[in-house]
Amino acid sequence: MKKVTVPLIAGLCSALLVAGMAVAGDDDRERRDHRGGSFAVGLWGDLPYTPQQRAQGVPNLIEDMNASKLAFSIFDGDVKNGRTVCRDSEYTDARRRFDSLRAPSIYVPGDNEWTDCHRKSNNDSPPRADLKQPYDSLERLAFLRRTLASSPRSFGKRTIRLRRQSAAYPENVRWERGGVVFAGLHVVGSDNNRVPDPDIDESATSYRTRQQRVADQQEFVRRQAATNRWVEQAFARARRTGAPGVMLVMQANPIFDSPDTADVDERAQAGDDGFKALIDVLRRETIAYGKEVVLVHGDSHYFRVDKPLKDGQGRRLENFTRVETFGEADPHWVRATVRPRARRVFRFDQRIVPANVVPR
Predict the structure, then answer these.
(1) pTM for the full model?
(2) In sequence order, what are the beta bridge partners of 72?
């Protein structure tokens, strides 16, 4: 893998959430922070995937981030690998990890936390004596929201206020720093939980029933609409305030066209998948906004910084940058330097954790 440094060219309390998502104004510390100049953001996700990473790799990474002067960090989903049991402890352990970070820590959901929990690989991995029945993905989503999206503030030893979209979608969040608009989006792998044909037999790999497949498709349709509105609202906020840049963070790799295959358009081949509507919104809003836009995601565990979004005529959108974080076998992180007053607002640098480098 070539690594480079690249400069940018429900179970919730409704009263708490409704009040929390509409909080006007920050505390004194946050006001002071917002008046500052450049600041740094830690980007990471898709960890831990192994017992060794849980015991050593992630603690090493957190120690490395804690030694850096970060305004906040963002975890872009997957607190476990896609083949381990979706126990309650996976979510509570993740919360403790996020709270061990000195700077505010923001969490964005991944598919391994809920979407994939119906799979046999997520239920049959030993030990499972405590499991009375296979996991239901939507029940796990409800638990995720109660555990990881129930507060109007971030995780971390120091916290910041977050604006949550609604009681129904508290995991969609937004906040600002230095005038830059940041938004966390609930867009996950596994085709974003889309189930276009509930009659397809999945019994070889899944415990999901037809009724559950129908419910999952309905969930996808509703959440997709809500998340796309959240993207539009983030850009509306950026235009209204004159924000110098927008950073969106989600888990899924939405399948952009790859420059490595000149004769194949991967986005066109994907067709009407779980990400097409989002890509259409991103394209429209990026063009209308005109300033720097960054999309951060994980999912395919390959660090990269590129410009994969094109307009309707196939021309590259220069003001859009995609950043994919490390993950899976690479327990490292990405440092984003944000300079609100600079000509180029965002810069990204790989942060290889020395203690996590494999001896060769």
Answers:
(1) 0.89
(2) 41
SS3 of the chain: the string is CCCCCEECCCCCCHHHHHHHHCCCCCCHHHHHHHCCCCEEEEEECCCCCCHHHHHHHHHHHHHHHHCCCCCEEEECCCCCCCCCCCCHHHHHHHHHHHHCCCCCEEECCCHHHCCCCCEHHHCCCCCCCCCCCCCCHHHHHHHHHHHHCCCCECECCCCCECEECCCCCCCCEEEEECCEEEEECCCCHHHHCCCCCCCCCCCCCECCCHHHHHHHHHHHHHHHHHHHHHHHHHHHHHHHHCCCEEEEECCCCCCCCCCCCCCCCHHHHHCCCCCHHHHHHHHHHHHHHCCEEEEEECCCCCCEEECCCECCCCCECCCEEEEECCECCECCEEEEEECCCCCCCEEEEEECCHHHCCCC
Q: Give the pLDDT means over successive 10-residue stretches in the chain (360 positions).
A: 40 42 44 68 98 98 98 98 93 99 99 96 65 88 98 99 99 98 98 96 94 98 99 99 98 80 59 88 98 98 95 94 98 99 97 96
DSSP structural state of residue 55? I
Alpha carbons 165 and 18: distance in angstroms, whole number: 9
The encoded tokens of residue 90 equal 């996976």
The residues, ordered by sequence, that sit 6+ positions from 96 with a Cβ below 8 Å of its Cβ are: none
Distance CA 118, CA 74 (A): 27
73, 101 Cβ separation under 8 angstroms: yes
- What are residue 210's phi and psi, to 5 degrees? -60, -40
C-alpha–C-alpha distance, residues 180 and 119, integer Å: 39
Cα distance between residue 219 and residue 291, in whole Å: 33
Cα separation, 345 vs 9, whole angstroms = 9
Q: Which residues pair with 7 in a beta bridge?
A: 347
List strand residue ranges (DSSP E) for the chain, in order. Answer: 6-7, 39-44, 72-75, 105-107, 163-164, 173-177, 180-184, 245-249, 292-297, 304-306, 320-324, 333-338, 346-351
Q: How far apart (Å, rounded) are the C-alpha atoms in residues 173 and 154? A: 10
Q: At 164, which amino acid appears?
A: R
